[in-house]
Recover the amino acids of this structure.
């Protein structure tokens, strides 16, 4: 048994926070169909509308009728892309601009539209994960239907300038979507400030339950249902309301908004502490992502000469739970598409570990990792066919 | 059984956490033969060092860059081959190593069990040194894609099964989907086999 369990995979998912859990336990008896006209139905509907207002507030949406509940981030992103597909069929604009570092549900939706004949551009990023603004400017034309760029990256945490990106797209008359699944709750998010048409949220990344998310659709922006059926969500998303999930989402959103500044300060301090400990104790490491425009909780590190899955499993045996960009752990046999897009090279991508801290991370946790990690890296490097010096040299271009 | 189930068998865990016969640069181990296969770009690389007397492997050291099953399978192989005749050692297949480890996930057998190739490379270099180059080679396949351990025989089999172009070959074998440095050589073989079989 490890001495302690240190969960540092909050970008993968978060635990249910007690305040949300307590409310959900009470809400388990809110069984009525929120579409029903009777009192129980109206009560359920009132709870859902309360949650909608809280989610709208989290993203500074103004009118809560712009928020539609879905089953999660993947559904929200798919809905936007399939809406664009419908528009492209009849309209003259047939170009979609996204990035090489999006979540697979955006990448695969975009690839699907490409196969269907749309002109899809995957913008390259620089070595810190920022999109190439020159290429973006060049690709943005009067043919552009949609620009879909994530607010913050799940692996390296790099934050894009969504305000500027949107302004440029709007000048060309394109719609703008941002996947803010990782940004929400970690940094301030304002759909009105950014001016986007669509924004994706997921509840389980902000200490709420899994299986519920939301899509913001600016008043007047076109939207086509992905799931057809009843008149729920004003015809945008059919299916009986997920009372429990949505009520939990509302509470999680309310707390996330109230705490976002405090969260940012605390978590940044702990993340920087972990970063400094790693850099100070382990030779030859590379911190991936942007040095300043980065999620306050995310630390992606490459350990040349050691392989990611071996590092992950060694940490796991010590009770430390992280994720890796190594091919060996992906199931796809390919290293992280995000790190590869930043040009670090497969050697460093295979040896990468993502530490994503969260609300319940403590200084003791960071000290525990700082103590356990160096001997693990040293052991794997001592068994390795390549020295870290060689591995770093290999990646020089 | 552990209170939580590990990703791999207990034997893999044991060899991963306590690997046998790892080369220690501080010891004086003078090998009679060495072999390296794999590529760090693919995520796996292995090296074997052998001491051989009268065609019997008397001692062995190794190094591995790779995942837990790569480390464990190399460690297991190093135990198995001690005291073994080089001709028998040459015939060990990845599936033999996986079986000894109490099984490996299917996707791991192909890419992480490279130890047998490193071993064969070491034995080949020994045979060359002792004036018998290629003595055991007759039926051994040659690895083309180091990342996924795909051989010329695999390409031949894929072509026999109907693959006619690079996309179809990739679909059948996943060849060249990691570092793609094998593409040129693999395409040559593909054209050769397509010529033969179509």
């Amino acid at each position: 048994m490890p001495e302690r369990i240190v969960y540092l995979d909050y970008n993968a998912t978060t635990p249910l926070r007690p305040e949300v859990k307590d409310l959900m336990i009470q809400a388990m008896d809110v069984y009525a169909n929120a579409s029903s006209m009777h009192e129980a139905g109206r009560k359920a509907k009132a709870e859902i509308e309360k949650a909608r207002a809280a989610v709208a507030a989290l993203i500074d949406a103004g009118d809560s009728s712009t928020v539609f509940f879905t089953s999660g981030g993947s559904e929200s992103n798919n809905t936007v892309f399939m809406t664009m597909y419908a528009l492209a069929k009849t309209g003259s604009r047939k170009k979609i601009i996204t990035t090489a570092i999006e979540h697979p549900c955006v990448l695969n939706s975009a690839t699907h539209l490409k196969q269907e004949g749309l002109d899809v551009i995957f913008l390259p990023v620089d070595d810190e994960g920022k999109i190439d603004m020159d290429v973006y400017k060049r690709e943005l034309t009067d043919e552009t239907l949609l620009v879909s760029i994530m607010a913050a990256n799940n692996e390296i945490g790099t934050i894009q300038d969504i305000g500027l990106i949107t302004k440029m797209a709007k000048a060309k008359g394109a719609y703008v979507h941002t996947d803010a699944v990782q940004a929400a709750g970690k940094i301030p998010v304002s759909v009105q400030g950014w001016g986007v048409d669509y924004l994706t949220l997921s509840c389980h990344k902000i200490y709420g339950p899994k299986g519920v998310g939301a899509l913001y659709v600016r008043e007047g922006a076109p939207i086509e249902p992905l799931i057809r059926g009843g008149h729920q969500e004003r015809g945008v998303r059919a299916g009986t309301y997920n009372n429990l999930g949505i009520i939990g989402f509302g509470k999680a959103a309310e707390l996330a908004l109230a705490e976002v500044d405090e969260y940012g300060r605390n978590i940044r301090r702990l993340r920087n502490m972990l970063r400094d400990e790693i850099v100070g104790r382990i030779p030859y490491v590379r911190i991936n992502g942007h040095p300043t425009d980065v999620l306050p909780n995310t630390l992606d590190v490459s350990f040349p000469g050691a392989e990611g899955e071996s590092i992950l499993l060694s940490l796991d045996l010590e009770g430390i739970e992280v994720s890796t960009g190594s091919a060996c752990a992906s199931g796809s046999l390919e290293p992280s598409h995000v790190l590869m897009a930043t040009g670090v090279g497969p050697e460093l991508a295979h040896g990468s570990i993502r530490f994503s801290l969260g609300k319940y991370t403590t200084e003791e946790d960071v000290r525990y990792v700082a103590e356990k990690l160096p001997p693990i890296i040293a052991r794997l490097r001592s068994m390795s066919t390549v020295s870290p010096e060689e591995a770093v040299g290999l990646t020089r271009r | 059984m552990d209170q939580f189930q590990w990703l791999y068998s207990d034997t893999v865990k044991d060899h991963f956490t306590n690997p046998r016969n790892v080369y220690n640069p501080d010891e004086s181990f003078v090998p009679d033969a060495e072999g390296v296969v794999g590529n760090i770009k693919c995520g796996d690389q292995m090296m074997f060092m052998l001491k051989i007397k009268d065609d019997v492997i008397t001692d062995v050291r190794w190094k591995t860059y790779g995942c837990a099953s790569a480390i464990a399978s190399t460690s297991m192989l190093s135990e198995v081959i001690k005291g073994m005749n080089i001709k028998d050692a040459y015939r060990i297949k990845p599936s033999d190593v996986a079986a000894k480890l109490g099984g490996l996930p299917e996707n791991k057998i192909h890419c992480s069990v490279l130890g047998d190739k490193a071993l064969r490379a070491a034995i080949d270099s020994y045979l060359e040194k002792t004036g018998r180059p290629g003595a055991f080679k007759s039926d051994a396949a040659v690895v083309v894609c180091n990342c996924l351990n795909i051989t010329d025989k695999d390409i031949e089999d894929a072509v026999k099964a109907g693959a006619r172009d690079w996309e179809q070959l990739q679909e059948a074998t996943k060849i060249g989907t990691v570092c793609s440095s094998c593409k040129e050589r693999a395409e040559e073989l593909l054209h050769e086999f397509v010529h033969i079989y179509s």
Q: What stands out?
A: Residues 67 and 232 of chain A are 13 Å apart (CA to CA). The radius of gyration of chain A is 22 Å. The mean pLDDT of chain A is 95. Residues 243-281 of chain A form the longest helix (39 residues).
